[in-house]
Write a structure and sequence with these properties.
Blueprint lengths: L2 H6 L7 H10 L5 E2 H18 L12 H11 L1 E5 L13 E5 L3
Antiparallel strand pairs: 1-3, 2-3
Length: about 100
């Protein structure tokens, strides 16, 4: 296999544990990626205290992996940084949420 084939066959995406963690953290309230990551860290700490974590697993995804996954699986809205109201003009912060 050539080096191009190796690069193309690389794993693209998040681990199944990270996907499960995102599904537990995301709610119907819109949240930014930073807030979702903070909630994931908090959930991970709670799981560590309960000893429900398998060692050696990739637990927290990168921002890019998380944004890609959230963009395909959940609804999104762009909110103004100042007023936290929906905006169309750009310059806002993307928030993701689960529809009921």
């Amino acid at each position: 296999m050539s080096w191009e084939g190796i690069l193309k066959s690389g794993r693209m995406g998040m681990s199944s544990y990270a996907i499960d963690l995102v599904n537990r953290v995301i709610t119907t309230t819109p949240k930014s990626i930073n807030t979702i990551l903070d909630d994931m860290y908090n959930q991970l700490e709670r799981d560590k205290k309960r000893r429900q974590i398998m060692p050696g697993r990739t637990k927290i995804p990168t921002r890019r992996e998380l944004a890609k996954y959230l963009g395909t699986k959940y609804s999104r809205v762009e909110l103004s940084r100042r007023t936290q109201k929906p905006t169309r003009s750009g310059g806002g912060l993307m928030h993701y949420y689960k529809e009921e």
